[in-house]
Amino acid sequence: MAAYVPPVDDVAFLLGRVFGFDQAMADLPGYEEVNTDLAVSVLEEGGKFCAGVLEPLNRTGDEEGCTLTDGRVTTPKGVAEAYRAFVEAGWCSLSGDPEYGGQGLPRVLQILLDEMLSSANLSFGLFPGLTRGAVEALGHHASAELKATYLPKMISGEWTGAMALTEASAGTDLGLLTARAVPNGDGSFAITGTKIFISSGDQDFGGNVVHLVLARLPDAPKGVKGISLFLAPKILVEADGTLGARNRMSVGALEHKMGIHAQPTCVMNYDGATGWLVGEPGRGLNAMFTMMNAERLFVGIQGLGIAEAANQKAVAYARERLQGHGADGTAGPVPIISHPDVRKMLLKGRAFAEAARALAVWTALQMDIAVHHPDADTRREADALVALMTPVVKAAFTDFGFETAVASQQVFGGHGYIREWGMEQYVRDARIAQIYEGTNGVQAMDLVGRKLGLDGGKVPARFFALVKADLDAALPIVGADLVTPAADALARLEGATARLSTQGGAIEAGAAATDYLRLFALVSFGWMWVRMAAAAADMGEAAPPAAARKTALARFFMARMLPETLGLDAALGHGASSLMALPADAF
Amino acid sequence: MAAYVPPVDDVAFLLGRVFGFDQAMADLPGYEEVNTDLAVSVLEEGGKFCAGVLEPLNRTGDEEGCTLTDGRVTTPKGVAEAYRAFVEAGWCSLSGDPEYGGQGLPRVLQILLDEMLSSANLSFGLFPGLTRGAVEALGHHASAELKATYLPKMISGEWTGAMALTEASAGTDLGLLTARAVPNGDGSFAITGTKIFISSGDQDFGGNVVHLVLARLPDAPKGVKGISLFLAPKILVEADGTLGARNRMSVGALEHKMGIHAQPTCVMNYDGATGWLVGEPGRGLNAMFTMMNAERLFVGIQGLGIAEAANQKAVAYARERLQGHGADGTAGPVPIISHPDVRKMLLKGRAFAEAARALAVWTALQMDIAVHHPDADTRREADALVALMTPVVKAAFTDFGFETAVASQQVFGGHGYIREWGMEQYVRDARIAQIYEGTNGVQAMDLVGRKLGLDGGKVPARFFALVKADLDAALPIVGADLVTPAADALARLEGATARLSTQGGAIEAGAAATDYLRLFALVSFGWMWVRMAAAAADMGEAAPPAAARKTALARFFMARMLPETLGLDAALGHGASSLMALPADAF
Fold first, then answer.
1. Is the CB of residue B346 less than 8 Å away from at least one CB of chain A?
2. d(Cα A225, Cα A244) in Å, to the nearest integer?
3. Is B436 an interface residue toward A (CB < 8 Å)?
4. B418 - beta bridge partners?
5. What CATH superfamily classification does A8-144 receive?
6. Domain ranges of chain A
7. B333 interaction partners in chain A (CB closer than 8 Å)
8. Of residues A115, A295, A354, A437, which has the active-site annotation?
9. What whole-number distance in Å separates Cα of residue B294 and Cα of residue B401?
10. Whole-angstrom Cα distance, residue B320 to residue B333?
11. Tens digits of per-residue pLDDT, A149-169?
């Protein structure tokens, strides 16, 4: 099996040639020293860790899985050591707040590292990913005292984080949750309840596990307005910052899952666990969403990561596997990569992964601008674009990521179904990303129900204008062959958006949601392909290998993937009526 | 978890109302006694066995898996007993040749039973399914002596069958296989070689396992023309028909697979195993294809079976799971089946499963006509339609079947990812059907490379004319709302077919294949929906529940699924060039 190769060449192309990363950073106070060379050298090192340390643990971790013995979680062989080495090397703190010991590097670098983590070992990547999400929520909403106590250790990675939201009867609808938090009279609370599906709910790396738990105060109203957020550590922290007694929480069971076997996904019992309020009472969901939005982007990147890795393996296999004669008449056996249908499967994965990486970099850049730009309007506009793109990245990257994993497995034929080759693990692992952190259906509802209405609809309009301007600018460079299909698809998306805003209503929105989100994603990928092709054309003769094939991939995308927008647009045009006609008992 | 409900009501509607089964059978000598009532009562009984005996073993079989100890295969608890009860009840011999003890019932009943077997327990269904495929090949190609010795026991199910084709370096390209067969001088051959991925390669039910093995004679030419087919039993059969000594073959290992864990998929070692030639030397692939075509239809039905079961579970869950408020303003929590996006996932599965069942019945009817009709031209025409439809059923049913399993799992949210609910097993089990018996890419190549050219292209033309005639006939009954989209999609398919025949060439065919097959399948489903809606409309007030919702499902299919043909058509129109541009080392 070919080893995973971190896509550092493509990163250099994207940052240096497509997104003008050096200038973008120069515009952000504090980031003047950050540039493409720095990013590439950081990611080269990170890539070595991912490919050299984490990928070798991917299949063994899947086979061994996690175990729970006498209430103690054991992760698969090698995982704890790898985690400690990861922390030791400083990878946890890459983008962390320098006030609490972080390195304060841009989001752009973080998401590119996240992709490599996800390619190498999805289960492992969840540990730092969830910790970072918890840090995000605490950073925005926790008291100074909680921040001082917890953030340094969490940012370094010495302590890990977990988010405890879901209960057996409260998943998508968190308003139904029943966990309770009763004041202890000393500023702390006693939290009682059972949570399920808690990723990284415990570990055996040492340190502490910091749970962010949603629960209800005694006088809380029903529904989401009665939910508050609490910090409850596995081990109570003494006044001097050292670890004290165990808190009253325990792992009730490990979930038996389709994949991510190296992740201890826990049923957590809180039996009067001591916790502290984070943010205001009744505003827990709001605080948790700070964490969840960061997590949603992270989960989208997981879809990209799996796609990149699975596609790489499939390409390597297709170059070596000899079957059949050539479609051009070459006597067989020939490498199966010469068969058009195999090429199509491989090209779809590649065209998705590279467009998604570009879109992820663009989105992360908006996040950096939203935090660091000196101009308040610019920050606000960037923040709104991130909000718009978050559900698209989460849902589309994980849907296409899963499809890429399945197609990459298909390239292996029967060998893809056998565990030894590792391809079926990608499919099983990729599947969770479509489900957790809000199912992809929930993401689509977020897009049509909330994000399209941001700033009275001006945010999507601004996004479409931005895409159109880029397409227009690229026209003289890459020609109508590439730009016209992308512009036509954009027009379809604008039409669908207009129909949604005029025909309105929650039923039409719900009926449109997932098709609309996919249309939105395909248009965004087309935009990225035009930008990448234009950047490659700009380089002329000097184009490095990672850039030279961009035009060919862009053409493939326009010819064989973007046409899906025609069907989506037509289906959207038919609206909700055919979905709502059948009574529930007649299905 | 809701129990699987065999779709006998829908079967009664299809046979009685859509396909005029009673008249169709009356036209076939020997089948005058067969009618809808008989079929329904047979399938009701079969359904009871599937739901009552086989489904309860589905998840336990997945959890326990098969084991190999000292060369002996052990299937999961309960499977051997269930198999013997299945044989005892006569289910193996349903459509078997009466000359060898079979009940000789039509293919239509067989495929409907196969669907229920696949819904209840895919792993189990492979045992009788593969035996039947082997019977098919032997029935057409083996000597009278071999047939007399083996067919009665195989048709009864007392002995099982396996097909041993694949080797580590010869999968899709069987021309590369290296297993050898050397004459023993007594009419038998000594077979030596290793085969992989051999489903039902062994079992612990008792009786015998009859292997059909592809191997090369000593003087055989290279490639497919040097391949011959041999029958090699696990236990040698004495002259009096009793079981004698063990043959020189052994199970080298059980494959570790993504799914179908209750199936002992074997690495088989033949160490000078005694075998007998089936058919002519060098014509092994031809003989094997008799088996494989039957198997390909069976595998397509597996996709349908999984889709039906997974969709049923998702519908039941969506009726009971309460989350969120209603899109129509109803205060929450409401059953999630009222959410438009959940409905869409459920309706897609239902609209696929019912169209696929109808198409399967139509195809099986052609198979019955191809064998039993008194008129030779009618037989030949029906046989050609079956040949045309075989790759479509195999590939499209398994692709849509997998997609339905994935969507049904999605309806469960996080619970779908947990093993306890059984939904993730459907996804893992469904996945194999896209790969084995010729990958779905190979099916698509078969469609565009061979089947479109049948009888100089007259066979697809005749099929399109038949669809068009049905659409025209339905127009006054169901109206343009339903017929026009189906007719438009048919026009797209005819256009794509014409382009393929004029632009020709293996590269264009390969580049078009999978998109073309999907377009073909969607058109076929649309055709079936028009026919079903027309039949339901014909019933007027008398429509039973299974028919009453047909119109609603037909409308949904036309509005939200058939538009995919627009994108497929446009992608096909772009041809092969964008697929072939990138050199193999530039991926």
1. yes
2. 34
3. yes
4. A257
5. Acyl-CoA dehydrogenase/oxidase, N-terminal domain (1.10.540.10)
6. 8-144, 161-282, 440-579
7. 173, 176
8. A437
9. 19
10. 11
11. 999 999 999 999 999 999 999
Its ipTM equals 0.98
Report the chain A residue with the minimal C-alpha distance to residue B172.
Answer: A323
Interchain contact, B414 vs A434, CB within 8 Å: no
pLDDT by residue (tens digit) across A49-87? 999 999 999 999 999 999 999 999 999 999 999 999 999
Distances (CA, A) of B374 to B25, B27, B31, B93, B179: 12, 8, 12, 24, 42
CB-based contact, A377 to chain B, within 8 Å: no
- Residue of chain A minimizing CA distance to B317: A584
d(CA A532, CA A552): 11
Instruction: Answer whether A553 touches B (CB < 8 Å).
Output: yes
- Amino acid residing at B131: T
User: DSSP character for B450?
Assistant: T
Token pair belonging to A73: 């979680």
pLDDT at B292: 80
Question: For residue A515, which phi and psi values (nearest 5 degrees)?
Answer: -65, -40
CB atoms near residue A225 (< 10 Å): 12
Task: Mention every residue, 6+ apart, whose C-beta is less than 8 A from residue A104.
Answer: A30, A95, A96, A97, A98
Contact flag B578-A560 (C-beta cutoff 8 Å): yes
Q: Do domains B8-144 and B161-282 have the same CATH topology?
A: no
- Compute CA distances A193 → A210, A223, A245, B1, B506, whole Å: 17, 17, 20, 25, 63
Q: Residue A246 is encoded by which pair of tokens?
A: 């165990």
Q: Which of the following is catalytic: B136, B354, B424, B437? A: B437
pLDDT given at position B259: 98
Residues of B in contact with A308 (CB under 8 A): none
End-to-end Cα, chain B, rounded Å: 45
Of A172, A324, A409, the CB nearest to B413: A172
Catalytic residue check, A45: no
Looking at domain A161-282, its CATH class is mainly beta
Segments of chain B scoring below 70 in pLDDT: 546
What residues of B are in contact with residue A558 (Cβ under 8 Å)?
578
Tell me the C-alpha distance between A186 and B444, whole Å: 70
Q: Report the alpha-carbon distance of residue A363 to residue B575 in Å, rounded.
A: 33
Select the residue from B196, B199, B339 to test the A interface by mutation, using most A Cβ atoms within 10 A. Answer: B339
**Residue of A172, A567, A585 with shortest CB distance to B323:** A172
Alpha carbon distance A259, A257 (integer Å): 5
CA distance A51 to A1: 13
Structure tokens at A430: 């990729």
